[in-house]
Design a protein that fits this description.
This protein is of the alpha/beta class. Helix content is 43%, strand content 20%. The protein binds adenosine-5-diphosphoribose (APR).
Length: 311
Amino acid sequence: MPRSKISLIGGGQIGGNLALLATQKELGDVVIFDIPQSEGMVKGKALDIMQLRPHDGYDSTITGTSNWDDVKDSDVFIITAGIPRKPGMNREDLLEINLGIMKDVAKNIKQQAPNAFVIVISNPLDAMVNAFYKISGFSKNKVVGMAGALDSARFRTFIAMETGCSVQDVTCMVLGGHGDTMVPVTRYATVGGVPVEELIPADRLEEILERTRFAGGEIVKLFGNGSAFYAPAQSAIEMAESYLRDKKRVIPCASLCEGEFGIDGYFIGVPSVIGAGGVERILEFKLKDDEKAALNNTLEAVKKTVKETGL
Ligand code: APR
């Protein structure tokens, strides 16, 4: 069987790390695509990763390009094309520029690989994934946004730091839009099956929730120029791996809801089963009144940004 082909649209900070992680997980051959002005940069990154392969014997091939023909028949695309945040900006401030880029990217992907599975990372995430879906005309199960995987990993990290327990044993999910209104669900957050509400005092837990909601901004502030890239890359690779290896992992992702959780026609973070069919299912569960209110609040924020795209 030939290797899978994974194309990374945007070879900047996240794109470079995606290429490294995809190689180290041997997910397939990797193509890093960027604009002509950055062709040398992505060719250089590709060559650099090619040269680390001998140490652990990875067989994948990594190439850099600015030619759309080179992504032809890719199995998976991960899109980071766009600009990242600077301090003081929220994700919505990126809308105009990144929407223009997404229109171009969606048109080209549709032409080169109409059957691919597409993971969108570019921000503002929920609006960008909707833009890709609408412009490409891809089926809803082949288009998904990476947000909840990252937000949940941040929540897990803070709970592990607080309790001093292994991050591996912390389970939790963050639902809703990829913005300050996101909804970390404390009721289902556990450490080795023990509810966090039993382990962490309520006021301290509230601080952790707040830190989770603004975790991206915390890093933007520290960097001074650009946004997080290691954890976002790892989160998207987890989703790509679940698709390529038909793992059927349950990952909070921005999936198109058509009635689930009372949401209709919007991509928003919900627990999604990712397997060979793409987003195969959304796992719906009963929300309590305060959780429902929080989800409605985040939905309003998503609707507002989507409306601004005119799509
Ligand atoms: N086609 C392909 N690549 C593009 C295009 C385009 N039309 N326009 C811009 N790019 C490339 C840039 O040249 C750059 O190399 O996208 C890359 C973005 O990389 P970075 O600026 O390093 O940004 P990064 O930190 O990777 O974040 C990318 O993901 O998390 C989001 O908010 C973040 O929207 C941002 C995106």
